[in-house]
Design brief:
The complex is a heterodimer of chains A (261) and B (351). By secondary structure, chain A is α/β, with parallel strands linked by helices. Chain A is built from 9 helices and 12 strands. In chain A, strand 6 and strand 7 form a beta hairpin. In chain A, helix 2 packs across helix 6 and helix 7 crosses helix 9. The longest helix of chain A is centred in the C-terminal third of the chain and has 20 residues. Chain B is 57% helix and 12% strand. The chains are: A alpha/beta (261), B alpha+beta (351). The structure holds adenosine-5'-triphosphate (ATP) and magnesium ion (MG). Magnesium ion (MG) binds next to helix 8 of chain B.
């Protein structure tokens, strides 16, 4: 696999880079398979300006796929919103680079609107409040960076290798390919999995699944394919999936993935 | 217990403009001044004609001088009094008292409410500590990572509750002192919903429930509204739905020409019909109706409703008869989408 070349990296710019909050986010990003770098200033006593220079330098050096940036640097008046100045610089020099900005909770939405007004409408910038869970940070970054990884893991036991179009069922250290899942069945599962990856809970509408069908009754054909997918994965895992497991139909609008426990 | 009325709209200056005594005083002052001038003008004429001596002039001049002083004093009083009253007066002090008693009430309310998740967090934390201590002493053999993780998860799950309460406080205070309303901004409603679901998915999973959502049409496009308000309203609805659901929560978006709606449904018992007229009241919960002690603040829907109306929309409850025999309910938020007028429209059509 080409994992190392494609491993994505995230740069974290936060004066509290060693705090528990930042550490828990880093840990979660590691689990995600993303490499994290933090901007650590050389001197012990640093000002917001040092961070700005370091951050811009690190972006040039590392070429990260995304940046997580804090609004606030230190307690000093002039550094209070240093992050916003750094943001402006990043957007100016690297307009395509996704930036996720940590905001102070209380001032969140208003400040967000104020900052947005100064940026280009299509700038890849998003805001998240500092009490957000690491899980939320990951979800935002997934959407902000906008690409689907080569391998999507669904729960503990299923993975989808998108590059080679193979579905695996994992048992301890053993990975068994589910050979029945190819062609349209693979395509449907991949569509459901990539939606789930960036937006769990979102229903993939029938209209979107129609393109993976043939024959006269597309809905019926999708229903059949989905049943086949569930049976195939269930067989490999040694379980039987019911209507409310793995892939569920929501009010006949479409389907969504529900990772097994 | 809950103060009502818009405190911010009651201003002390409005009242002062309507005190009649002040107008009378001004009028009297002018009259006295006129009399004083008359005295000065008439003094030489009358004095010369009647008394033919300098002595006779004196009384009228004195009277004129006295009247001038009185007249100026009355006028000064009449014009200066409102200025003086504009500084903290009894009236505005009373307004301050109203305001601070409302703030006080909110504070006490939230003080109690914020205590609830905190107590839960502390409870779990102590349970965890006791567990670890027992493990250390060899009482239960080894530390079961799964058990520890479970306790930690339960602690973590208090966070969304806390955050919702914090934003409820913020919005409540803003509602009492409304600022100039913001210009509608372009909003991607599906993304707003996605963020709420990001936050509540773990909470739902913890309780073995799940949230599904979709948009009709799936290419929903952009509306012009206030994303913070939408997020706040829908967070309250989803928070309730996740709490009251049996196992499923559905959220879906629809849009019409000039408005869009967000529907939040759960498969729980729903709100029974005799409670429906009350759910949007400030501080109402079924516990209030049953005269029991409240276990939640009952502010979420009040705030959500007030915000919806404030933004020119509506928040309603729909009975859901399609999804089975139970009395499920759907909350529907509808807001104007403020579409910019199409190019070529005359200026008059743009509102
Ligand atoms: N989805 C629902 N299903 C059933 N009952 C509901 C639902 N949503 C609200 N209710 C009822 O309406 C009451 C008021 O809801 P509201 O959100 O205003 O307050 P709360 O949830 O009790 O407290 P808070 O939101 O302030 O923490 C709730 O206590 C509950 O009894
Ligand atoms: Mg509520």
């Amino acid at each position: 696999m080409t994992e190392s070349r494609l491993q994505r990296s995230i740069l974290i710019v936060d004066d509290e880079w060693d705090s528990k909050v930042v550490r828990s986010v880093r840990k979660r990003l590691d689990e995600e398979g993303w490499r994290t770098n933090v901007v650590v200033p050389f001197d012990f006593i640093v000002s917001g300006d040092d961070f700005e220079a370091e951050a811009l330098y690190a972006i040039e050096e590392d070429r990260p796929d995304g940046v997580v940036l804090d609004v606030r640097f230190g307690e000093h008046g002039s550094d209070r919103f240093k992050g916003l100045a750094i943001l402006q610089k990043i957007v100016e020099h690297h307009p395509q680079l996704p930036v996720l900005m940590f905001t102070q909770y209380w001032k969140g939405p208003d400040r967000e609107i104020a900052v947005r007004g100064t940026l280009k409408w299509d700038a890849q910038v998003d805001f998240i409040d500092k009490f957000a869970s690491p899980e939320e940070v990951v979800m935002r970054l997934r959407r902000l960076m906008g690409t689907t990884p080569d391998t999507i893991r669904i729960g503990d036991r299923i993975s989808i290798d998108n590059a080679n179009e193979v579905v695996y069922v994992h048992d301890a250290d053993k990975a068994t390919p589910v050979t029945e899942l190819h062609g349209l069945r693979f395509d449907i599962l991949q569509e459901l999995a990539s939606t789930w990856y960036s937006s769990p809970g979102e229903v993939v509408p029938f209209a979107k699944l129609m393109r993976y069908t043939e024959g006269e009754d597309p809905r019926a054909s999708i229903r059949v394919r989905i049943r086949e997918i569930k049976v195939a994965i269930g067989k490999a895992m040694g379980v039987q999936f019911g209507a409310g497991d793995l892939i569920i139909n929501v009010r006949d609008r479409g389907y969504r993935l529900a990772p097994p426990e | 217990m809950y103060a009502t009325g818009a405190i911010a709209s009651r201003r002390p200056n409005d009242m002062l403009r309507h005190i009649p005594a002040l107008s009378i005083a001004k009028f009297t002052g002018l009259l006295i001044l006129a009399a004083a001038i008359a005295c000065f003008v008439l003094a030489p004429i009358i004095g010369e004609a009647l008394f033919a001596s300098i002595w006779g002039v004196e009384p009228l001049t004195y009277i004129g001088a006295a009247l001038l002083t009185i007249g100026l004093a009355v006028l000064l009083f009449a014009f200066a009094l409102p200025q003086a009253l504009r500084r903290p007066s009894k009236q505005s002090q009373r307004d301050m008292q109203d305001w601070s008693s409302v703030t006080q009430q909110y504070f006490e309310l939230f003080d109690h409410d914020l205590g609830r998740p905190l107590r839960r967090i502390l409870g779990k934390e102590r349970e965890l500590r006791a567990y670890l201590r027992a493990a250390e002493n060899g009482a239960n053999g080894h530390i079961d990572i799964e058990e520890v993780t479970e306790l930690l998860d339960e602690i973590e799950m208090q966070a969304p509750n806390f955050r919702l309460m914090m934003s409820n406080i913020r919005v409540l205070i803003q509602l009492e002192a409304p600022n100039a309303s913001l210009e509608p901004q372009p909003v991607e409603v599906p993304e707003v919903v996605r963020r709420i679901i990001d936050r509540y998915n773990p909470v739902a999973a913890e309780a073995n429930k799940s949230i599904s959502w979709w948009a009709e049409p799936s290419e929903f496009g952009i509306v012009y509204s206030d994303s913070a308000a939408i997020e706040h309203i829908v967070t309250n609805l989803v928070d309730n739905a996740v709490r009251f659901a049996n196992s499923q929560v559905h959220v879906w978006l629809t849009r019409e020409d000039d408005r869009f709606s967000i529907h939040v449904w759960d498969d729980g018992e729903g709100v029974s019909s005799h409670y429906r007229p009350h759910v949007f009241d400030r501080g109402w919960t079924p516990a209030v109706a049953r005269r029991e002690e409240k276990t939640s603040s009952g502010l979420g829907l009040y705030i959500a409703y007030t915000l919806s109306i404030g933004y020119g929309g509506d928040l309603t409850i729909e009975n859901d008869t399609t999804s089975g025999p139970n009395d499920h309910t759907t909350f529907v938020l509808t807001l104007p989408s403020h579409q910019p007028a199409p190019a070529g429209a005359t200026a008059g059509e743009i509102s």
